[in-house]
Amino acid sequence: MVIRQTFLKLSLRLHTQESSSQLIGTEIVCSVDGIYCVSGVYRNEPRYQDRSHSPIHYGAVWLQVIDTPAQMLEGHYWTDRNSAGELRLTERQKHKFQDFKSAQTHYTHLSEMTTSNRIVRS
After folding, report:
1. What pLDDT, on a 0 to 100 scale, did the predictor assign at position 97?
2. What is the pLDDT of residues 55-70, one digit of tens each?
3. Nearest Cα to 10, choosing from 40, 34, 36?
4. What pairs with residue 29 in β-bridges?
5. pTM here?
């Protein structure tokens, strides 16, 4: 999930191997007790070759901001394909990826670096 925020705008984009989702309408909601949530409607666009089994669809998401400053986003989503699920976003990175492949390459490289730097004790 790539999150970009300015003073006036909020953008959430989810990249997977088969598709990309983008919020097309969003709102930051603050409850009376000071808990912030992000609500939004999104459009999921699968790659062309995957559309036979995964058509373009729409959904909604509700994410609660956990802690101040934010340490986690947690919530749920539902789609017009009658599917639903939960989301828990726990890691923050400064690098913002434009697609799934660049994120996958970055994290594979980091994983290889971490593995090669481990000390094995017997």
Report:
1. 72
2. 999 999 999 999 877 7
3. 40
4. 37
5. 0.71
